[in-house]
Sequence to fold (436 residues):
Amino acid sequence: MTNTYASTALLTDKYELTMLQASLADGTAFRQCAFEVFGRRLPNERRYGVVAGTARVLEAVRNFRFTEEQLASLDFLDERTLDYLRNYSFSGQIDGYREGELYFPASPILVVRGTFAECVILETLILSILNSDSAIASAATRMVTAAGGRPIIEMGSRRTNEEAAVSAARATYLAGFSATSNLEAAARYKIPASGTAAHAWTLLHTNADGTPDEAAAFKAQIDALGIDTTLLVDTYDITEGVNTAIEVAGPELGGVRIDSGDLGVLARQVRQQLDSLGAHNTNIVVSSDLDEFAIAALRAEPVDVYGVGTSVVTGSGAPTAGLVYKMVEVDGVPVAKRSRDKHSHGGAKAAIRTCRRSGTAVEEIAYPLGSEVPEVGNLKHRELTVPLMRDGELVDGLPTLEESRAHLAKVLVTLPWEGLALSKDEPVITVRFHGV
Fold:
């Protein structure tokens, strides 16, 4: 695991440090506490959520160290608090669902244990990563399901900020996307990169008299990138663009891309045209504001690859997973918020997921962390909560991005069939509390 930032310590909210100062003053800073990350509901009435960003959280916690320059900017804190932060390094325990796991309302996704002081100042950092990455991975997974095995390329970098673009690419790859257009994500996380040319490339090849020279643009691209490249054929007239592409490249052209218009109708027309020109193996790539519903609508069309941008980096209308970070235990005593619509269950918790002999998931059971796994009768079960950090150090054998990607693909098939539907409904699995 490589360090992304020299320090993540200021990726937080002021009230966390003011609470720290008050706790140091009244003597409560070193009480042993447990905080839990969970969601009260799934956004947009979806049927499941995907845990993403766990590895980034652990990296960020490890890098949560204050520099002298950062401390100098915190002029609202007293010297005792500044001295505490100067020597801060998380030394507690973190348990939770592995990355690529499914979650549901009240699933104990992450449990952070340690002193109040060291745990409370991690809230914003942990939630900002998990909420964004889980929202994007949840949306992207629905798109992968809708695509029915056909590849999807993430190309949303220009629709979000520069660092969010990198983390979004990672989350979509976890979800099953095949590649990203973002080179920093490709370099940082070893994700396959994909990209050829935009409309600007075709427009560049305009003659001095103002007439377009699409053939020159296509030839130059093929000369530079090879016959396997994908040519963007909708800058002017799509029918003429396809004809020109095959005239220049021949029937072994890798692909053509359509980025506008009625994609279903155009894909059918272009497939017929390519086949008539002998380009039977030339792929059709479509893009243009695709989301899971648009992809599902195109499933019967001769589309080979999808390109998705805006909708996936915004979580397809759910830019946050709605996860919260709440204290659930103080000095071994369960505590819980009881306000209306925001009730929570006290105590640090682990969870299992039960399933039938066929492998189909039945329910989740949350139970006190560290206690025996509940009896499940004739059902099988899988433990969801695993150690992630011990005494501030990463545990050995944490899964790689590739392993988490494979895990997600595996657990998706355990959902009841209605769980993969795109329509709004109740979560397909419920969480039951045992001994809590």
The mean pLDDT is 96. The longest strand covers residues 32-39.
